[in-house]
Amino acid sequence: MEDVRRVMGAFSRRDHFKVVLVLEGANELHYATRSYAVDKPALVFTNRLVPYSWELVEGGGDQQGYVCGFTESFLHSAMRGVSLKESVLYKVDGNPVYFLIAEQQRYLAQIFERMLQDQATDYPHKHDLLRSQLSLIIHEAAQMQPASAYPQPSTNAAERITALFLTLLDAQFPVTTPADEPILKNAQDYADRLAVHVNSLNRAVKEVTGKSTTTHLAERLVHEAKTLLQHTDWPVADIADRLGFEYATYFTRFFKQHTGSTPLAFRHPA
What's the CATH number for 2-142? Predict the structure, then answer.
């Protein structure tokens, strides 16, 4: 939780969920394949599974507001088991921007300010307080009318979709802990996350890169598998699991198909 002037950063690997209270400044939020003009007080949500960029509008004035980054597990108990990534506030086909009237702006600013104060204390149960305050913010937004996106130019649609796909692909890696298991495992998963039809995604990626979506996914999995085999002592079964393969035999078959070698032979060449 921070009090910041430039209230948003760019989407990055292993990012948190973020909720932002914009108080001043003119900005544009590009969220998946849609864009929003954020030029007045607003509550903005971003999802670590959806690529976004935050652009300051030239001459848009000072940037003032609050930003809070958090994990889904942090809020899990306060939201009674509701999955944030499936909620209306975080689904890719939902709306991430909610404009505020003066009363809502004052109320939410008070909550964010109290979160800052509580975070700075030594109170042993402060995280419970923060969860409760964050859930208040999310429930408040759920009662609001979301902002509307404005149309994107169609001339570079393929390039934009492909760039978003490659950003999402990059965000799945590197795998460094069991918690880093890739969430998006096939072309349909990526299409769902970008709110486009899988055929549109496949056409765009092929047109722009000359490779199919499946080829990009396979190449990245092979690269990550080689890295883990060379630089960790993890059992092959653990590597398979962390790369999203249901069974180690599936991983072995995949790896040999793309490299001509089994995982163990690659790790310990003759």
Answer: 2.60.120.280
